[in-house]
Amino acid sequence: MTLKIEKLGEYLGARIEGVDFSAPLTAAILDEIATALYQYQVISIPAAEMTPAQHIQIASHFGEPEHNETDQFARDAAHPEITVIDSDKGDRADSWHADETFLEHPPLVNLLHGKVIPQFGGDTALRSAACAYEGLSPVVKTMLEDLAAMHDYGHLYELGWQAGFPIAAMVGDALTKGLYQLHPVVKRHRVTGRPWLSVNPVYTRFIEKLNPVESEAILGMLFRQLEKPEYCYRHRWQPGDLLIWDQECVQHYAVRDFTGRRLVHRVAVVATRSTYKGVLSGAVNE
User: Fold this and answer.
1) From the candidates 55, 252, 262, 265, which is the catalytic residue?
2) Whether residue 146 lies in the annotated active site
3) CB 56 within 8 A of CB 81
4) What distance in Å separates the CA atoms of residue 260 and residue 122, rounded to the nearest whole number?
């Protein structure tokens, strides 16, 4: 099988054509997909014929699929690795974020399969936190080296509470469950070694060991850096698309500009396999 890869953006984004889902997915094909992902950070594949088992197989090539850490989305009854994100049930996330960074080990790769796509709108916007870091000045990079930030699930509910939703009690409940975690402000990618900004406006509450004024100023600056359009790619869905992004260094935004139903199936990878050798030069940094 020969795969065709078309680059879609200067910094991130590519389309892969030629994956035959009526035939077995070989290790060589999966390695090609992984190589493209780590090179382009975001890839899409026409996958209308892809089965749930194949969805999980591709995810498992990157590591261990997640079995929902929270009750935010429903599960597919036959395949617990798959979360069902359905706009008809109110599942919409119109804000920039990286998934579940309030966990000690957030997802490393996300794989979204478009099952029902609106005729217009409902795109997924993505941005490279690695490119955003590379665009910072050397002085700022040095300042960030030893900083860590607190991420917590309650911050998501607090933002909803501020927006007028009656969910104040859920803020404290999330913290009581221990859904918060310190992460370095700058991390290094396990496969490529590239540094990237690990903060995001949905789950990052403050930077440790700084006073609130300092923390707010630095986070605000980093969020504005991440917002630069040159670091972004916007995926316009076709029914059946498989969209894969490198969650370690890519943040996403589900654009809420559609009517009708938007139904996608998600599998997230939460840990690399200890035997995974990587697809670029050098092994995975475990």
Assistant:
1) 252
2) no
3) yes
4) 10
Series of mean pLDDT values for 10-residue runs along the chain (286 residues): 90 96 95 96 98 96 78 62 87 82 93 94 95 98 98 88 86 87 96 96 97 98 97 96 97 90 93 46 31
Q: What's the burial of 276, exposed, middle or buried (CB within 10 Å: 0-12/13-18/19+)?
A: middle
Active site residue 252: yes
Beta bridge partners of 266: 83, 112
The closest alpha carbon to 235, from 247, 225, 227, 244, belongs to 244
71 an active-site residue?
no
Q: Return left, alpha or beta for 40; rule: phi > 0 is left, psi -120 to 50 is alpha, else beta.
A: alpha
Contact between residue 100 and residue 70 where contact means Cβ atoms under 8 Å apart: yes
| Residues 6+ away with beta carbon under 8 Å from 256 | 92, 94
Residue 206's contacts (CB-CB under 8 Å, 6 or more residues apart) are 149, 150, 212, 215, 216, 219
Catalytic residue among 92, 97, 261, 273: 97
The burial of 39, by beta-carbon neighbours within 10 Å (0-12 exposed, 13-18 middle, 19 or more buried), is given as middle
How far apart are alpha carbons 186 and 133 in whole angstroms? Answer: 8
- Phi first, then psi, for residue 179 (nearest 5°) are -90, 65
The answer to whether the CB of 141 falls within 8 A of the CB of 245 is no
Asked if 270 and 63 touch (Cβ cutoff 8 Å), the reply is yes
Closest CA to 174 of 149, 157, 192, 150: 157
CA distance 94 to 104: 24
Residue from 55, 99, 151, 262 carrying the catalytic annotation: 99
pTM over 0.85: yes
Residue 274 structure tokens: 């200890």
Q: What are phi and psi of 65, to 5 degrees?
A: -65, 145
**Cα–Cα distance, 120 to 237 (Å, whole number):** 9
